[in-house]
Amino acid sequence: MWNEDEVLRILPSDILNEVRGYLLMESVQEIRIKVNKPIIIHLSTKEIILNKIATINDIKQILIRVSNYSIYAYEEEIKQGYITIKGGHRIGIAGECVLSKGEVRTIRNISSINIRICKEIKGCSNEIMKYIVQSNRVNNTLIISPPKCGKTTILRDLARNISNGMPINNLSGKKVSIIDERSEIASCYNGVPQLDVGIRTDILDNCLKKDGMIMAIRSLSPEVLICDEIGTEGDIESLNMAFNSGVNIIVTIHGYSIDDIYKRKVFKDLLEDSILEKVIILSNRKGPGTVENIYSIMSGGELKCLK
User: Residue 121 domain-assigned?
Assistant: First the structure.
């Protein structure tokens, strides 16, 4: 479920009239607004192209409302390519990137906005929990998923279940640290999580994964560390450090299958070094969050299918 009020607040009236009905749908995922182009609404199973053509004034009005009439106060977020609003909804922006010393300093002449609707589905990870919990311990788990298949939603609910504890699976509540590099898991607004990630969870928001994992281990004493979309050698090094520090990990990666991951050397090593214990494969076959397979990783990287 989600509350559409914060999204309604930022839209100019003419656009609001066009999209209001779609915002009442639980399947709405994105609203894409580009200057001189028709507005596109993405649902979980299809896209809808509206007759309404967006103008540069529409973009300016949205940015003014998103930034609470002070766009300069959001320069740090803008250079990352998005602004998170109350409710955890993320406003992606595109335009002319201004560089300084090889890095993006800000984005100006913004001509494209993507409103990503933030939702939580409590209980969506309940079925998975019995596979990754053993003897009051959380297995080191990798979730493999193509884009828009619900991996972040499931990851968020896993954090909530692990943090609160789950008596049905004989799991007591664990101290959880979330490294939320793009403010997607907890959807923090002014540092406060907008979604339920559990009572024992700490969040390092807008923090690089490789840095945040080390910071959490040194200062937050997590029992379980969670982060989304690992991809660099630095991420893998930090995961190794967490493993060697006795911290359990749950992470996600873009992909379609185990074979897809084995083709990438950095992840092949992670699987074969006996750090990971469970692998979950998601798809969109029966809607976002469809669990295709769950594997247990045996000694030497051998896989045993559990589902």
Answer: no
Spatial separation of the C-alpha atoms in residues 279 and 303, rounded to whole Å:
9
Q: How far apart are CA 270 and CA 276, in angstroms?
A: 7
Q: How far apart are CA 303 and CA 225, in angstroms?
A: 23
pLDDT (mean) for 255-260: 82
Q: Name the token pair of 213.
A: 């994992």
In a domain, 34, yes or no: yes
Number of neighbouring beta carbons within 10 Å of residue 274: 14
Same-domain pairing of 220 and 143:
yes
Q: Give the separation between CA 307 and CA 291, rounded to whole angstroms.
A: 9
Instruction: For residue 244, give every residue at least 6 positions away whose Cβ sits within 8 Å of its Cβ, in sequence order, or none.
Output: none
Residue 237 banded pLDDT, cuts 50, 70, 90: confident
What tens digit of pLDDT does each residue of 106-133 get?
Answer: 888 999 999 998 888 899 999 999 999 9
Helix-, strand-, coil-residue percentages of the chain, each rounded to 5 = 30, 35, 35
Number of domains in the chain: 2
Q: Are residues 249 and 134 in the same domain?
A: yes
39 pLDDT higher than 70: yes
pTM over 0.85: no
Residue 162 structural domain? 126-305
The first and second tokens of residue 293, run together, are 């397979």
What pLDDT does residue 159 have?
A: 97
